[in-house]
């Protein structure tokens, strides 16, 4: 069956001006869908927004400075029964500067301008019309889309900090456009927030919470108040989950962790004493572990770094593994690459492995699982196109001894209860 086929992540970048979009007819030289009409697309080998800019440069001859981001859509799954392929499509919308020329490459036989209504009369690649509907019509202002683009391309900050910035961008948009902002634009702005960093569960989680709160208020709500409540909940949850973990780690003298997590940092600061020791993997490519060690050492913690290649040896020397969390699905936890190796080594050694999460990292049902890929160009280094790496690991939830949250240890029952609460038909659009 098609649903058993692996998902292939791709971007689809729509260029528009004057309410019309550019479509290309794919040439006979491309690997799939020859002769069909499509937007500018390609396999994901880096952060999705960066990949979209790359496709515009290669396929349309349009530089990043000649377009303006105007839409980020919820990813959609496209099942192609004929080709026996499943695509995870990340749609983006860009406004083209008036004087910019389009110069297509060998992947296009021709190109033309079309309206949304024209698509039903064209022989297009599967899912094209639905992908466009997820970013059309344009809305918002330059400040909002600039803020989301910064978040979508950020390789410096963690999921929680990026979510805070995204909520601030949402609040700013609503404040500036409230008098003439309809419910459709508000919903689409929340969806764009959810989709700007799809690997990080906090984005679709908070988006669902916003939509559910708005629905409960039946048109009478204060958006600034809703955003403020969520921001306060994020701060409180981080502190409480760290305290919960510190209490559960009192027996341990030596811990292993990796990457950088605010909750892990705070838990260690509460847990540590004069006899304790922390080993932190460097966690390439950005070496976030070095930052964590520096902060811990400045607060009197006996902490040192170990090379990523030495993770198994460091784990075997420890009493427990404790890691952060970027997303929780029904049966797995997503965290920085290296986590799976650490947890697997701990289980083989009969050692406990813990995760520190917050319930706002729990992903709503039906949200697509996507493990973020980064290129060395994403983090500011020169490289060739073979320099792409997976930045996240997916680890079975049952491989962890416990997942500490602000509510205490996460149970399967509580996980399903939260996922049920987050279920919202508005977050993931119903196909037209």
Characterization of the model:
This protein has 432 residues and is of the alpha/beta class. Helices cover 35% and strands 23% of the residues. The strands form four sheets. Strands 1, 2, 3, 4, 5, 6, 7 and 8 form an eight-stranded mixed sheet that branches. A seven-stranded mixed sheet has the order 11-10-9-12-15-19-20. A three-stranded antiparallel sheet has the order 13-14-18, with helices on one face. It is globular and about 70 Å long. The model has no long low-confidence stretch (mean pLDDT 93).
Please give the alpha-carbon distance between the first and last residues: 24 Å
Give the total of beta strands. 20
Q: Regions with pLDDT < 50 over 5+ consecutive residues?
A: none
The CATH architecture name of the largest domain reads 3-Layer(aba) Sandwich
CATH C-level label of the largest domain: Alpha Beta
Q: Find the CATH superfamily of the largest domain.
A: Translation initiation factor eif-2b, domain 2
Largest sheet: 8 strands, mixed
How many separate domains make up the residues? 3
**Proportion of beta-strand residues:** 15-25%
Could you tell me the CATH topology label of the largest domain. Answer: Rossmann fold
Indicate the overall shape. Answer: globular
Determine the structural class based on helices, strands and strand pairing: alpha/beta
Rounded Rg: 23 Å
User: What share of residues is helical?
Assistant: 25-40%
Mean pLDDT: 93
Q: In DSSP terms, counting alpha (H) and pi (I) runs of 4 or more, how many helices?
A: 12
């Amino acid at each position: 069956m098609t649903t058993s086929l692996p998902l292939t992540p791709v971007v689809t970048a729509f260029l528009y001006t004057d309410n019309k979009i550019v479509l290309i007819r794919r040439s006979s030289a491309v690997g799939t869908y020859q002769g069909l009409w499509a937007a500018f697309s390609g396999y994901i080998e880096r952060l999705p927004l960066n990949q979209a800019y790359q496709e515009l440069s290669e396929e349309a001859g349009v530089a990043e400075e000649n377009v303006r981001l105007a839409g980020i859509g919820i990813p959609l799954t496209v099942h192609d029964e004929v080709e026996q392929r499943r695509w995870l499509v990340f749609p983006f919308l860009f406004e083209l500067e008036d004087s910019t020329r389009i110069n297509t490459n060998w992947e296009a036989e021709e190109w033309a301008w079309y309206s949304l209504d024209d698509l039903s009369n064209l022989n297009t690649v599967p899912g094209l019309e639905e992908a466009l509907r997820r970013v059309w019509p344009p809305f918002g202002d330059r400040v909002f889309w600039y803020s989301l683009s910064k978040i979508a391309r950020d390789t410096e900050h963690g999921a929680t900090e990026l979510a805070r910035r995204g909520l601030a961008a949402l609040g700013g948009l609503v404040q500036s456009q409230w008098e003439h902002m309809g419910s459709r634009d508000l919903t689409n702005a929340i969806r764009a927030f959810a989709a700007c960093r799809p690997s990080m569960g906090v984005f679709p989680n908070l988006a669902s919470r916003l939509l559910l709160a708005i629905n409960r208020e039946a048109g009478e709500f204060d958006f600034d108040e809703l955003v403020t409540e969520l921001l306060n909940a994020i701060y409180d949850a981080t502190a409480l989950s760290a305290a919960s973990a510190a209490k559960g780690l009192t027996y341990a003298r030596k811990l292993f962790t990796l990457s950088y997590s605010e909750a892990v940092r705070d838990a260690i600061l509460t847990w540590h004493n004069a006899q304790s020791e922390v080993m932190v993997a460097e966690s390439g490519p950005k070496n976030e572990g070095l930052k964590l060690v520096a902060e811990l050492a400045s607060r009197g913690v006996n902490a040192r770094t170990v090379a990523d290649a030495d993770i198994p040896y460091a784990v075997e020397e420890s009493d427990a593994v404790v890691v952060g969390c970027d997303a929780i699905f029904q049966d797995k936890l997503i965290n920085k690459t290296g986590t799976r190796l650490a947890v697997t080594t701990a289980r083989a050694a009969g050692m406990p492995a813990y995760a520190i999460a917050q319930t706002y990292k729990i992903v709503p049902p039906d949200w697509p699982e996507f493990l973020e890929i980064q290129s060395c160009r994403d983090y500011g280094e020169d490289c060739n196109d073979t320099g792409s790496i997976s930045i996240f690991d997916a680890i079975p939830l049952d491989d962890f001894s416990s997942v500490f949250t602000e509510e205490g240890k996460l149970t399967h029952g509580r996980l399903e209860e939260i996922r049920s609460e987050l279920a919202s038909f508005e977050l993931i659009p119903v196909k037209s």
